[in-house]
Amino acid sequence: MTQFLFDKAPKIKSVLMLLISLTILSCASKKDILYFQDSENLNLTKTDHEFDPVIETNDILYISLSSINEELLSPFLRKSQQTQQLNSANPGLDGYLVNIDGTISFPVIGDIEVAGHNRAYVENILKEKLLIYIKDIVVDVRIMNFKVSVIGEVKNPGVYTIDDERVTITEALALAGDLTEDGNRHNITVIREENGVQKVAKIDLTHTEFYKSSFYYLKQNDLVYVEPSTKGVKKSGFIPDIPALLSLFTVILSSIILITAID
After folding, report:
1. What is the mean pLDDT of residues 9-32?
2. What does pTM read for this prediction?
């Protein structure tokens, strides 16, 4: 037995080295897991993160009017003020749909162009037109359908409604429960539609460069996709599971050694 092992030592050593190499390659490294690995180099000013959502066609706007004399509001409300609450059972029915031409139809005033503008602009335009009728008018505009979708290798994929119309990609991933251990942190895909054109960006969470990206803040209806890492793909069966193969190979090799030694 001893003589056999001595004779076969070079071959056994080569096989063991191969097994060790494959084991090392099959393991995830630190650089594949940790977020923001170069965070010490991050130096952003407040203006670098200024964001104000732009209204788009097919958005639904919640428009609230208020005045000391509520009777003056009546002609400008499609429904009673009581039913136009942001937390109503179906607030979309009380909202103003942005038409394909970028306008909304407002009572008495008529069509108002809103697409391509922010909420503050629309509030100012409405207030300017309503001041003719109501001197103390207060206008509040919200985007009711500000939603983002997060799918792929996250713990809770789904569609998330953003009440304050301001969400970063990291916040969206946090809402989805963060990436699973099989999520690829180097290659997060964000799909966005702007002016009828689909745009795609790739985000690497292991570095902070994405903080400067125009995709750092998500827009309404953005889609975030987390693809599986190599480890995740292996689990799905598309690529052989190296640890499992190593275990099988080790058993076979041990059996061959024992059988040969007995002979």
Report:
1. 54
2. 0.71
